[in-house]
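Input (structure):
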């Protein structure tokens, strides 16, 4: 059996798969995200190590498996994290996650100087506070003592590998998402490091995604229920492995993931960059690059709406026994496409692709007296899909239109939501049976590294399709009209977003003081 270990933003999940992709056991452990000041989003890396141990132990126990049955562990981690460590590998800063926006001013400075465009063309990483490059510049300017004290600047992937195996090693996929890696030369970028003010020896050793690690430290082997001899495969980023996990591994196949956030991605056989910097391009191997874009606001927008406005007692009675989010989606489905003239810009936590604007803010537009809670619920769901459609447009311009979209993440459990994706995009949507796509993708990489699979393209034989959605052409036409208005509203509000974001930051600091 193979283990797919998916280390995400809010939890770590471990799944035991046989070579055919059948799940035999699973385990999960969560951790908190701290927001100590406006714009910050931090975690304690030791909490993540503890979660890894717990998730692996639970997965082994649930499967009734013993260490000798595990052929390899494949690892998936979130992108864009950064922390500073001392020479012993101990954290001297919290882990800054992709959601950390503290480097807004540094991003603006890079744009003014013209450096942002040069670095994007070299690294494929858009200029945004998510980028470890801009986080490093912030640290150099705003936390000088810690910056000078740091022995290395690493991601959660390097931290995990160092704790478990004793080496500062990172896969090319995660390294490529730092804004510090040259995607054409396939090495750390001297120019980007100079911009950040760091040396090459302060970064990890970059290795292929199929690199096998051996010699798991005894204390971790015992705690996880594994052997010290169990091979670990370093794996890749969660985004790239989500594509692998749904079988979207070649050019022309596009994966759409909506969980807490969202993303749309394709593999390309060469580096592809958007002229306006709307999308990312990250190296995966010598033959593949991952192109696409993430949105900050996926399922979190629905959860926010549910938390703030709920479902009234009458609706709850009708929807009794259903998951609250699914109940919200069912309620939204009673309203026609376009929510009868109500639009939602879902930028509750700023936005990444295609605008890369950390100051963007959530907005309802077109509110009238005839709009009720179901209309607002529908507008929220459609707003999330419009945000993703903006990224899809950029991908089509660069790499042509995909014949199908492969859906994964929590949203794929809802046939209503996936049909709406087909209608908004005007493209057939296929839902594979691998909801936990990043974990399965990590297991697939382990299978490839160990020789069980010849390459990642062979994963298609392991995936079953649950359902297919054809776009409703009438709905697609309606959505296109609303989408054009959606883009126009964003363009008109963009200057006001910056003013409001500055006001909100000032108000938050005043409250703290």
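Output (sequence):
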């Amino acid at each position: 059996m193979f283990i797919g270990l998916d280390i995400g933003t809010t939890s770590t999940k471990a799944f035991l798969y046989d070579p055919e992709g059948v799940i035999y056991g699973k385990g999960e452990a969560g951790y908190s995200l701290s927001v100590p000041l406006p714009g910050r989003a931090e975690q304690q890396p030791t909490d993540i190590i503890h979660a890894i141990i717990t998730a692996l132990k639970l997965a082994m126990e649930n499967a009734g498996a013993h260490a000798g049955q595990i052929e390899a562990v494949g690892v998936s981690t979130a992108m864009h994290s950064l922390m500073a460590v001392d020479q012993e590998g101990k954290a001297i800063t919290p882990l800054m996650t992709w959601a950390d926006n503290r480097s807004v001013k540094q991003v603006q400075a890079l744009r003014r100087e013209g450096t942002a465009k040069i670095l994007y063309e070299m690294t494929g990483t858009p200029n945004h506070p998510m980028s470890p490059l801009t986080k490093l510049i912030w640290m150099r300017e705003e936390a000088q003592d810690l910056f000078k004290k740091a022995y290395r600047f690493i991601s959660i992937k390097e931290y995990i590998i160092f704790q478990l195996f004793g080496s500062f090693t990172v896969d090319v996929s995660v390294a490529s998402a730092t804004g510090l890696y040259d995607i054409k030369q396939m090495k750390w970028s001297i120019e980007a490091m100079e911009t950040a003010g760091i040396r090459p020896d302060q970064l990890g050793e970059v290795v292929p995604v199929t690199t096998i690690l051996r010699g798991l430290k005894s204390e971790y082997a015992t705690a996880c229920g594994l052997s010290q001899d169990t091979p670990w495969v370093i794996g890749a980023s969660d985004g790239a492995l989500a594509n692998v996990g749904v079988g979207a591994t070649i050019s022309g196949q596009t994966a759409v993931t909506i969980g807490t956030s969202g993303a749309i991605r394709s593999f390309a056989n060469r580096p592809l960059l958007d002229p306006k910097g709307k999308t990312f391009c990250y190296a995966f191997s010598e033959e593949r690059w991952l192109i696409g874009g993430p949105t900050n606001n996926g399922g979190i927008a629905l959860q926010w709406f549910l938390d703030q406005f709920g479902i009234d007692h009458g609706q709850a009675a009708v929807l009794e026994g259903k998951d609250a989010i699914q109940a919200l989606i069912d309620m939204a489905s009673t309203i026609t496409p376009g929510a009868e003239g109500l639009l939602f810009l879902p930028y509750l936590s700023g936005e990444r692709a295609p605008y890369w604007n950390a100051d963007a803010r959530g907005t309802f537009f077109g509110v009238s007296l005839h709009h009720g809670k179901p209309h607002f619920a529908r507008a929220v769901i459609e707003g999330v899909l419009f945000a993703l459609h903006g990224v899809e447009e950029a991908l089509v311009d660069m790499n042509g239109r995909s014949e199908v979209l492969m859906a994964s993440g929590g949203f794929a459990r809802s046939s209503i939501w996936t049909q709406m994706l087909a209608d908004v995009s005007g493209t057939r949507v296929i839902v594979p049976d691998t909801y936990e796509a990043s974990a399965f993708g990590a297991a697939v990489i382990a299978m490839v590294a160990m020789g069980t699979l010849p390459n990642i393209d062979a994963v298609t034989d392991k995936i079953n399709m649950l359902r297919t959605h054809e776009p409703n052409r009438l709905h697609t036409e309606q959505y296109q009209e609303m989408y054009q208005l959606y883009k126009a509203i964003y363009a008109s509000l963009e200057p006001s977003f910056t003013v409001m974001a500055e006001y909100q930051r000032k108000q938050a600091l005043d409250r703290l003081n």
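Notes: Residues 137 and 197 are 7 Å apart (CA to CA). Confidence is low (pLDDT under 50) at residues 316-321.
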